[in-house]
Automatic annotation (TrEMBL):
Superkingdom of origin: Eukaryota
The protein's name: Short chain dehydrogenase/reductase
GO MF, any single term: oxidoreductase activity
The family this protein is said to belong to: Belongs to the short-chain dehydrogenases/reductases (SDR) family.
Pfam families xref list: adh_short_C2
Keyword hit for Cell inner membrane: no
Keywords, in A-Z order: NADP, Oxidoreductase
Coiled coil: none
SUPFAM superfamilies with a match to the protein in the record: NAD(P)-binding Rossmann-fold domains
UniProt organism field: Westerdykella ornata
Length: 247
């Protein structure tokens, strides 16, 4: 995979995705906002695999920052073939409490989970269409978008909207651009471990395979979607059978 990938978000799953793409020979640009040290460490690990790895600072709750990050990535890598929109936003809250998140938090969730992926593709589109083999956008969705639960109601609603965004973009932005999403289940990451232990135990027991979503299994889905030239508008659910009934 002699391509230039752009990774959004570096902690947890983002690190595994970055290293997986680097192992495939892809150059990577790694996004961070407040914490540069983890981004630099992941970039160094990627560089050890013989690829070019750079970092790009941007707030992925801002469409203007998203646009700038694409422009900076193209400048640093000399091109762009793949965008992995791995960032998102939520705040853990009582799902049933309609006052749990205020209006600015709902707006922030909408911006991060819907507006920014749209802005990333809009910024990357001219480069993608100029590439001989086009370009790829893959977002990190969530099974929360297929169910009625999760870290917050705003998160579930906006992740559902992201699924519809992917379908609309895929329908209208071909044939040179492919757009898909990966829907993980429970991931044992810094973020996922914010759930109470009893919730984690319940979720794992509920999964048909009786284990969490393994990070490498999830990252492998991104690699597959980046390579598969016959898939667009698709959601690939990698959740150990936690939400089989999801539509």
């Amino acid at each position: 995979m002699d391509e230039k990938g752009f990774l959004i978000g570096v902690l947890g799953l983002g690190e595994v995705i970055a290293l997986s793409f680097a192992s495939e020979g892809a150059n990577v640009a790694i996004n961070y906002f407040n914490r540069i040290e983890p981004a630099e460490k992941v970039a160094a690990k990627c560089a050890e695999k013989g690829v070019k790895a750079v970092t790009v600072r941007a707030d992925m709750c801002s469409t203007a920052e998203a646009k700038r990050s694409i422009e900076e990535t193209i400048e640093k890598l000399g091109g762009l073939d793949i965008v992995i929109a791995n960032a998102g936003w939520t705040r853990f809250s009582n799902f049933a409490d309609l006052d749990a998140l205020d209006e600015p938090e709902w707006d922030r969730c909408w911006a991060a989970n819907v507006k920014v992926p749209h802005a990333l593709l809009k910024a990357a589109k001219p480069t993608f269409e100029a590439n001989p083999e086009g370009g790829v956008l893959i977002t990190t969705g969530s099974i929360a978008g297929n169910s009625q639960g999760g870290s917050s109601m705003a998160y579930a609603v906006t992740k559902a909207a992201q699924i519809q965004l992917i379908k609309c973009l895929a329908t209208t932005q071909g044939p040179k651009i492919r757009i898909n999403t990966v829907l993980p289940g429970f991931l044992r990451t810094e973020w996922g471990l914010r759930y109470p232990q009893e919730t984690i135990d319940f979720v794992i027991d509920k999964a048909a395979l009786k284990h969490e979503t393994y990070l490498q299994d999830c990252a492998d889905a991104f690699i597959m979607l980046a390579k598969n030239t016959s898939m667009t508008g698709m959601k690939v659910q990698v959740d150990a059978g936690l939400n089989i009934q999801g539509n």
